[in-house]
Amino acid sequence: MPALSEVLSALDALWPAERAEAWDAVGTVCGDPEAPVRRVLFAVDPVQEIVDEAVQLGADLLVTHHPLYLRGTTTVAAATFKGKVVHTLIKNDIALHVAHTNADTADPGVSDALAGALDLRVLRPLVADASDPAGRRGLGRVCELAHPMPLGDFARYAAERLPATAQGIRVAGDPERTVRTVAVSGGSGDSLFDEVRAAGVDAFLTADLRHHPASEATQKSPLGLLDAAHWATEWPWCEQAAAQLDEISDRHGWDLRTHVSRTVTDPWTAHAASSHPSPTTTLQSSASRAASD
Ligand SMILES: [Zn+2]
């Protein structure tokens, strides 16, 4: 069985910490470098449910995409929810390792996994990392659909291919407009509209889109927007990362057991579709009622 330090060096080679954004908090949160590792669990969020799952599974290492402490802390008291996570991990000899923005921009990275889940052909990064001579690393991916389809159909297709969440996928733009090319970015893609427009794609699939940026983006060009659940856009990375570690384990004869959590940790737990007429319909009908009165 490999020691934690050996597994961590392999993970660092996949997602070097120095490629993370300056504001990010990646790397090992807890764990004894000498401890043996047999079982590894991959998940998006280091929340208590996931840590409990790691305990149930008998995992020695939990690898998550999101950091536990992004801004540092002065306490890991179990009275705080993050402190409880730390206590549970240490009491059960489970290490926690985070690969966040260093996994986003990797080759393959989070958006490659997202494109893979949707069977898209990746053409190039949306924001290329200038330090990569191969031109494959960077944020987001510009992709091509194998079979162009209307935006509305593409949204339904993406909702079927991504893991199910309460949110599903919201769409902005003409549902009938054909989508041939799409930019994808796992996680919050709100800041990438300029790059998406410059890429000249038909649609942009990401998460956490807000009213004003989305409204402006669709006013400036006929770009279709697909707003999926943040967790769902990053979850495919867990499968990709587990497969990468499996391959390393085979190469070294480590015999690791990798697992991917299927627990939905998206914070949104329910979605109520409007059952009454839309505001536009209501306004029109009251206007026509007023006209006929
Ligand atoms: Zn994220």
TrEMBL record:
Chain segments carrying region Disordered: 268-293
InterPro entries: DUF34/NIF3, DUF34/NIF3_sf
Keyword Ribonucleoprotein belongs to the record: no
UniProt superkingdom: Bacteria
Keyword terms of this UniProt record: Metal-binding
Compositional bias segments (type: Polar residues): 275-293
Family affiliation: Belongs to the GTP cyclohydrolase I type 2/NIF3 family.
Quaternary state and interactors: Homohexamer.
PANTHER family: GTP CYCLOHYDROLASE 1 TYPE 2 HOMOLOG, NGG1 INTERACTING FACTOR 3
Official protein name in the record: GTP cyclohydrolase 1 type 2 homolog
